[in-house]
Design brief:
The chain is mostly helical. It has two domains: about 90 residues, Membrane-bound Lytic Murein Transglycosylase D, Chain A (Roll); about 220 residues, no CATH class. Helix content is about 45%, strand content about 5%. The protein has 14 helices and four strands. Helix 4 packs antiparallel against helix 5, helix 5 packs across helix 7 and helix 7 packs parallel to helix 10. The longest helix is centred in the middle third of the chain and has 32 residues. The protein is globular. The chain starts with about 35 loop residues before the first helix and ends with a helix.
Length: about 400
């Protein structure tokens, strides 16, 4: 989305001394889903929850002609979750690591594969699907309210009860988001607090901004903390007036046809974005994510989220250490070893965004993990932690 250098004056583009790569524990790829996530995904039509220990082992045997990517897509689809080619390739690498397969392209008929490492992505996707379905049902119930006529008076009590239940469901969801936001999304909350201190966000808008970002994360399936890291790189952490004269706002909507400003409805006057608040610009972010098909990438990691903003076409390169085709000079943080002469890769993006966030927030937030209470309250609490080591 943005081809120009970062407008952020705090980025040190002269540091080419190198930086340790982000730790990537093998355990991260085999992490099982939290109990709440597993329980949420196992809700049946009657609303009952499956016992915590009832999740069966997940395995399969390779058939002739199959590829690991194809197996991942087939297995996820058999459980009601359709994933994109990019996400299938990413998860295939996860399965390869958890099965000690050196080359993901080298599998053979009859080989037994343990697929338990897919559980987290599966449960998150199922939880999102159920949340979306529940929201749509509640919205439909609230909207379909027949006019009360004398003949219909006898049914008015039932109608009001149904609408009341829908309203309560919506209220309960907002309360859940409010509680989980306060305890589960550490980086996001610190970023918003910092933005309030800097005057980017009015203090009274804090919870509304938090809820809007979490809503976007549910719709497009990314970690709220990752969105905070994105804005810390693009606009010093949600500065609605950040600009480099061609790109503007919290994620740097750029001018030109088929660019970010046009997607947000400001193609004719991109600088007008600067006159809108963070809350208003978050609505523009939603439009941009829709136009760039972000939700089609399955559970979205930090690298795909950032590439969607920087250069969407670069998402087609899924190898973690391959040089990405990103025109123009970018912030040193994004390059391998923070050397602007080196290429930008998915791994260097991950390392750079985490390091930048740590420096701006004043402590090593990358090592923090959600509390157990936050995990129980929100199926997304664990997603941020997993995204940090991808």
């Amino acid at each position: 989305m943005r081809l120009d250098p970062s407008s952020n004056p705090q980025v040190n583009t002269t540091d080419a001394s190198g930086m340790p790569k982000l730790p990537r524990s093998q355990l991260a790829y085999a992490r099982t889903a939290p109990a709440f996530t597993r329980a949420l995904a196992s809700i049946n039509q009657s609303g009952a929850l499956a016992p915590e220990g009832s999740v069966p082992a997940w395995s399969t045997s390779v058939r002739s002609g199959q590829t690991l990517t194809g197996i991942v897509r087939e297995q996820m689809a058999s459980r009601g979750v359709n994933i994109s080619n990019n996400e299938a390739m990413r998860l295939a690498q996860t399965v390869a690591r958890s099965n000690n397969i050196v080359n993901a392209n080298m599998i053979h008929p009859g080989q037994k594969l343990n697929l338990d490492s897919l559980n987290l992505s599966l449960q998150q996707a199922q939880a999102v699907q159920q949340a979306i379905a529940a929201n749509k049902a509640a919205a439909a119930a609230a909207l379909v309210a027949p006019a009360v006529t004398p003949a219909a008076n006898v049914n008015s009590l039932n109608t009001n009860t149904a609408m009341g239940n829908a309203a309560l469901a919506g209220t309960a969801q907002v309360q859940l988001l409010t509680r989980s936001d306060r305890s589960g999304h550490v980086v996001l909350e610190k970023t918003i607090d910092r933005a309030i201190e800097k005057g980017f966000i009015p203090a009274q808008d804090k919870q509304a901004v938090m809820n809007k970002i979490v809503q976007l994360s549910h719709e497009h399936r990314f970690a709220p903390d990752d969105f905070a890291r994105l804005t810390l790189m693009e606009s010093d952490g949600m500065n609605p007036k950040a600009t480099n004269n061609r790109c503007h706002g919290i994620i740097q909507f750029c001018d030109g046809p088929d660019r970010g400003a046009a997607s947000a409805g400001f193609g004719a006057n991109p600088k007008a974005i600067l006159g809108h608040s963070v809350l208003q610009q978050l609505d523009m972010v939603g439009k941009y994510f829709d136009d760039t098909g972000l939700k089609n990438f399955g559970p979205v990691g930090l690298d795909d989220l950032y590439l969607t903003v920087l250069t969407p076409a670069a998402r087609n390169e899924t190898r973690p250490n391959a040089a990405l085709n990103i025109p123009g000079q970018q912030a040193a943080y994004l390059h391998v070893n923070r050397d602007v002469r080196a290429p930008i890769t998915r791994n260097s993006i991950l390392a750079g965004l985490h390091h930048n966030a740590n420096e701006r927030l004043g402590k090593d937030v990358a090592q923090q993990r959600p509390s157990m209470q936050a995990v129980r309250l929100s199926a997304y609490a664990a997603q941020a932690a997993v995204s940090e080591v991808r």
